[in-house]
Amino acid sequence: MTVTTGSVTSADGTTIGYRRLGRGPGLVLIHGAMESSISHIELAEALAPDFTCYLPDRRGRGLSGPHREGHCLRTEVEDIGALLAETGARDLFGVSAGGIIALRTALTVPTVRRAVIFDPPLSVNGSPSTAWLGRHERELAEGDVAAALVTGMKGTQMGPRVFDYVPRRLLEALTAMAMAREDKNAGPDDVPFRALAPTLRHDVRLVIEQSGDLEAVKAMRAEILLLVGGTSPAYMRVAVDALARVLPDAERAELAGLGHSASGNAAQRGRPERVAEVIRRFLTRP
């Protein structure tokens, strides 16, 4: 499968790089926190026979420029909007924080036709908590990336349940070892956790910014599929249920037996072929 790269310029002059593969109607795949465009390359490969897939690196990652002062949800939407305008793509898939971005882009960019929103971490009645963000930022400022990653993993409830019973110092030591191994084995296109760690706080701020703003999506004109993992953190199911109440015409589907990592590459516990089938059915229906 041939993968090419390109770039667009966002409203504030920042370069947004992307990967492109496939043929057919354009589909933009928006990755989530602690990910880059490479994280969903296998999902794009599964969809490539039917869609031209565009995988942008969100800011601070890989092919794209850095976050700037005042970065917010509007900035993220402008980045995706620039890609949509350049490519003519009309469909979106977004996971996690990328799901929040896809949702807002579908609301505000009139050319968007359909969007699949997977496990958006929208804040509903104070859940999920973001109280851990201050500690995460302090640990990053002190250069303790392993500790910051453990704080983020626990705060977002993304680690295995067994982590709740493992002493924190041991978790930090194991994380530092895993980062060292990843740094050693990383390929030229990979964006390792050490580089991704500083981007997490920006995604958490998207959750905070969107808090209590669900009513705004009532004006949605694009067709929406709300997708949730059967074993994803409970707060994501709460968010999808809340969106379904606000968007009664939206479709809803559950990936039985799969969790938040389902759309990612197989090496990250993903099942991209199963997710691709759900996306394909929604985007190709009459």
TrEMBL record:
The answer to whether the entry has keyword Signal is no
Any GO molecular function: hydrolase activity
UniProt keyword annotations, A-Z: Hydrolase
Query: Which Gene3D superfamilies does the entry link to?
Result: alpha/beta hydrolase
InterPro entries hit by this protein: AB_hydrolase_1, AB_hydrolase_fold, Carboxylesterase_BioH
Checking Pfam families in the record gives: Abhydrolase_6
Q: Where does the AB hydrolase-1 domain lie?
A: 27-277
Does the keyword Hydrolase belong to this entry?
yes
Q: Which SUPFAM superfamilies match?
A: alpha/beta-Hydrolases
Q: Where are the transmembrane segments?
A: none
Q: What is this protein called?
A: Alpha/beta fold hydrolase
What is the species of this protein? Sphaerisporangium dianthi
